[in-house]
Design a protein that fits this description.
The protein is built from 3 helices and 10 strands. α2 runs antiparallel to α3. A 4-stranded mixed β-sheet has the order 7-4-9-8. The termini are far apart. By secondary structure, the chain is of the alpha+beta class. The protein folds into 2 domains: 35 residues, no CATH class; 134 residues, Nucleoside Triphosphate Pyrophosphohydrolase.
């Protein structure tokens, strides 16, 4: 199979705003047939697992308008053009939970929803976090709650933490959390 088995015949943007674009591509599939592929161009993002000095993790209970539900999440945010992921991680930590970290360590990266979106997300473990006053945007309706790592793992296993990127961020950080 070739490295890129699809052939893009033409592309057009059908929607753009500050946060994302929707691109419609006419494509030739590997079997020679033709069809349409829609891609959400989102850029990159960061997800931050905040660990306080006492070992507890700070999660946010975040209201998501799109699904009209409260979700347990880690702080996260989008990367603007030219920004470094670690810089954005520090900013989002301060904005969403009022957090300042002694250190930030990148744990890995993943594609958030590669079936339709190009967003590449970076996971950071923030150690030695102190909490202060958040500086949230008007659309961010959230509360900060503290849990042990074991409690958060239980929440993930029980399906109480339903935000996939947040769950993955905790799971990819768990070995580092368990070592001093």
């Amino acid at each position: 199979m070739p490295e890129d088995p699809y052939v893009t015949l033409r592309s057009e943007y059908v929607w753009r705003n500050r946060w994302y674009s929707v691109r419609r591509d006419a494509v030739r599939f590997p079997d020679g047939s033709e069809g349409e592929y829609n891609v959400v161009e989102r850029g990159s993002a960061v997800f931050i697992v905040p660990e306080l000095a006492d070992g507890r993790l700070a999660l946010i209970r975040n209201y998501r308008y799109t699904i009209r539900r409260w979700l347990w999440e880690v702080p996260a945010g989008g990367i603007e053009d030219g920004e470094q992921p670690a810089t954005v991680a520090a900013r989002e930590l301060a904005e969403e939970i009022g957090g300042q970290a002694e250190s930030l360590e990148q744990m890995g990266s993943f594609y958030t929803a590669p079936g339709f979106c190009d967003e590449l997300s970076y996971i950071f473990l923030a150690r030695g976090v102190t909490l202060g006053q958040p500086r949230r945007e008007a659309s961010e309706v959230m509360e900060v709650h503290l849990f042990t790592a074991d409690e958060v793992l239980h929440m993930i296993r029980q399906g109480d933490m339903q935000d996939g990127p947040s769950s993955l961020s905790v799971l990819m950080s768990i070995n580092a959390l368990r070592r001093p």
